[in-house]
Amino acid sequence: MIKVFLLDDHEVVRRGLRELLEVEDDLEVVGESGSAQEATRRIPALRPHVMILDARLPDGSGIDVCRDVRSVDPSVAGIVLTSFDDDEALRSAVLAGAAGYLLKDIRGSRLVDSIRRVASGESLLDDAVVSRLRAQWGHDVDDPRLTALSPQERRILQHIAEGLTNRQIGEALGLAEKTVKNYVTSVLAKLGMERRTQAAVYMASKERRGERQH
């Protein structure tokens, strides 16, 4: 049985998706939410095989939910379901580790098929699309460690690479020094590193690779 979680801020959409999926013998909706924060909290506990995520929500983004959940449990596959077809959102979805990026005008039968495919480990992202993203944005798509970082954590990492202290980072980002310290701890843990100097060296080598590509 493939377990699915639904995230969409429109109750009618969630109800329609639930009715579409639950007539299938091999699909079960184990939870739903209209809130990004609630979904981020509930999904890891429910452990669905697939999460269907609305890209834009009142309190955040389904793309952020995908990244945050997969940083805790990478076995959960994410499909971003959106009304908006733009490269920036697609890039964000790829970096968040989403297995699919689908428009809401998709036929029901194709959505059901897509859920089955990502549950079996497939990616719905076209190779040509991912290649284009690699060409435009460098190595980020290829480094799974970076996909686990939130936008704020990426900013923290960049400042670490510039040699700033926690206090200086806090002043640059308008954060308390203790908050920055917590962010640094999280960044190092997600990168699998123990010291900020390791992170700085990693970013420097990454930038050198990027320069060689151009």
Automatic annotation (TrEMBL):
<keyword id="KW-0804">Transcription</keyword>
<protein>
    <submittedName>
        <fullName>Transcriptional regulator</fullName>
    </submittedName>
</protein>
<dbReference type="InterPro" id="IPR058245">
    <property type="entry name" value="NreC/VraR/RcsB-like_REC"/>
</dbReference>
<keyword id="KW-0238">DNA-binding</keyword>
<feature type="modified residue" description="4-aspartylphosphate">
    <location>
        <position position="54"/>
    </location>
</feature>
<dbReference type="GO" id="GO:0003677">
    <property type="term" value="F:DNA binding"/>
</dbReference>
<dbReference type="Pfam" id="PF00196">
    <property type="entry name" value="GerE"/>
</dbReference>
<keyword id="KW-0805">Transcription regulation</keyword>
<keyword id="KW-0597">Phosphoprotein</keyword>
<dbReference type="InterPro" id="IPR016032">
    <property type="entry name" value="Sig_transdc_resp-reg_C-effctor"/>
</dbReference>
<dbReference type="GO" id="GO:0000160">
    <property type="term" value="P:phosphorelay signal transduction system"/>
</dbReference>
<dbReference type="InterPro" id="IPR001789">
    <property type="entry name" value="Sig_transdc_resp-reg_receiver"/>
</dbReference>
<feature type="domain" description="HTH luxR-type">
    <location>
        <begin position="142"/>
        <end position="207"/>
    </location>
</feature>
<dbReference type="InterPro" id="IPR011006">
    <property type="entry name" value="CheY-like_superfamily"/>
</dbReference>
<feature type="domain" description="Response regulatory">
    <location>
        <begin position="3"/>
        <end position="119"/>
    </location>
</feature>
<dbReference type="InterPro" id="IPR039420">
    <property type="entry name" value="WalR-like"/>
</dbReference>
<dbReference type="InterPro" id="IPR000792">
    <property type="entry name" value="Tscrpt_reg_LuxR_C"/>
</dbReference>
<dbReference type="Pfam" id="PF00072">
    <property type="entry name" value="Response_reg"/>
</dbReference>
<dbReference type="GO" id="GO:0006355">
    <property type="term" value="P:regulation of DNA-templated transcription"/>
</dbReference>
